[in-house]
């Protein structure tokens, strides 16, 4: 995905800037297309950002005991999304130290309309071939990795049930509405806990929204309780709350959200 310019299993939860009282995004934060070599850092960011989340604590109750297992799961998830031909991955780094990645976003272009096909064509034959080869390589790599280092953190029964809940929400809010099939979908917006509240999540999200606006298509996402505030600030609306919640999470907020491009009659 290295040639995709930044401008115009279970999906990871979406996180954002929860506090309205912290300073705005600094111009010293730069955005660029993610590289394959960024995946380990992205996985570590997920691990740190999701640590206090009741959902991940419920699904992976032993994550604190086996940190490397936790990192492995997040690396694999980020890598699979990165190697999806329909995916766009963006990282936020410090201008003074571009090797210091403080956040990232992964978006996916769904549908078979002109915009979706053009996004894939714009990758170029060489890049598409390279992604195809790498995706198969890492498919088998992950299988071997999971055999050698088996999963010790996931509660299998809870995860299976949770995946069925995700499927229910997907059916309710997306599959049952064919007019929403062509869209950008934000799979992950993750910011390092040390840099949250500075507008970095918003800056990443706006890059994805530029594409949706240019293509005149909606964008969807699954918002955590923490992330809902950020997404409302950039124009997302709540389609509905989750059909199920984990027993340990009694907080209000979060759900399935949608963003409509300006100048369209998408709502009707």
TrEMBL record:
For this protein, the record's CDD domains field holds: NAT_SF
Task: List, in alphabetical order, the Gene Ontology terms for molecular function in this entry.
Answer: acyltransferase activity, transferring groups other than amino-acyl groups
Gene3D superfamilies per the record? 3.40.630.30
Membrane-crossing residues? 129-149
Q: Which domain of life is it from?
A: Eukaryota
- Ranges where the N-acetyltransferase domain occurs: 120-262
Q: Which UniProt keywords apply?
A: Membrane, Transmembrane, Transmembrane helix
Q: Which residues form a coiled coil?
A: none
Q: What's the protein here called?
A: N-acetyltransferase domain-containing protein
Taxonomic source organism = Lachnellula hyalina
- Lineage summary: Eukaryota, Fungi, Dikarya, Ascomycota, Pezizomycotina
